[in-house]
Amino acid sequence: MTIDIIGPEAEAKLDWVALTEAIEAGHSLPRAEVGDTFLRRGPDTLLTRSAWIDGMGLAVKAATIFPGNHRYEVPNLHGVVALFDDVKGMPEAYVDFALVTKWKTAADSLLAARHLARKGSEHFLLVGGGTVALSMVEAYSAVFPGARFHVWTRSADTARAFAKATGATVEPDLEAAVRKADVIATATMATAPLVRGSWLKPGTHLDLIGAYRKDMRECDDEVMRRARVFVDARATTVHHIGEIMDPIASGAMTEADIQGDFYDLPAGAFTRRSDDEITVCKNGGGAHLDLMTARYILNAAR
Fold it and tell me: What is the Cα Rg of the chain in Å?
């Protein structure tokens, strides 16, 4: 038995559009069974995310998060993704953790934008200037050839570095930047809303990426009141992330107001209805998306 080892060199063979198509096709298969576990020792964490899709296989994504690693001059985050055969359960491949995470995260929101953003969108605003925002420039550019990128961050140095790396225009005023954006991607660690619903112009699409805990928010309740709201997966967002939980608790929206997730793609329910409506998609991730992405990467590498 040969187990493939897929490293970062496989990135040269990957394509953003092809990955979104693979993720969409994966949602035509039987619904994934997923499970997460957390083990902790003080501030240190071991996170495992597992998924099984009948007809695709199994994956386990394991990550260690050790915030004190700066003392040893090594990264805080380490991990591995293991793929298993669907028929015999045999290990097939170990796929580079950072590669899976980068492509899964950005392709998740790119898939949403392909269905929810207006086709002629040109003005793209990145709120946050970190690794995920850099990936979103790559991803959006693959689908929206006329995209012009703008960036706002709390740190002027970060914004300038992002602009130098991507050619994006630095926006000093977040409200002004939001008011003229066609597509907005938020990729921050914010625990209080940054984007206000009153700032959004008709036709805007908003990809919410950063918040992943119950105490995290990147937009306010008014965004959810004004927009048609979608999520990538109900199972990983509705009862797990403050971006959805808080506006439901306040009465700004109900769970029934969520228009669809990626499992509604085959029926055509995950879609924009008019050029004037505001759309939002919350990217919550999930092990099933890691499985779909790792499987795509393995196939591309082979």
Answer: 19
Q: Which amino acid is at 73?
A: E
Q: What is the DSSP string of 121-153?
A: --EEEEES-SHHHHHHHHHHHHH-TT-EEEEE-
- Identify the bridge partners of residue 48 per DSSP, sorted by sequence position: 37, 62
What domains lie within the chain, and their CATH numbers? 4-100+289-301 (3.30.1780.10), 105-286 (3.40.50.720)
Instruction: Report the 10 Å Cβ neighbour count for 205.
Output: 27
Instruction: State the pTM of this model.
Output: 0.95
DSSP assignment of 3-65, as one string? -EEE-GGGGGG--HHHHHHHHHHHTTSSPPEEEEEEEEETTEEEEEEEEEETTTEEEEEEEEE
* Residues 199, 203, 204, 208, CA torsion sign: positive
Judged on CB neighbours under 10 Å (0-12, 13-18, 19+), 270 is buried
Q: Determine the Cα–Cα distance for residues 191 and 107; give it in Å rounded to an integer.
A: 24
CB 255, CB 248: distance < 8 Å: yes
Q: Alpha-carbon distance 248 to 170, whole Å?
A: 34
pLDDT tens by residue, 71-127: 999 988 899 999 999 999 999 999 999 999 999 999 999 999 999 999 999 999 999
Tens digits of residue pLDDT in 168-178: 999 999 999 99
Tell me how far apart the 2 most distant CA atoms of the chain are, in Å: 58
Q: What single DSSP character describes residue 69?
A: G
CA-closest candidate to residue 117, choices 20, 244, 15, 3: 20
Of 232, 286, 296, the C-alpha closest to 262 is: 232
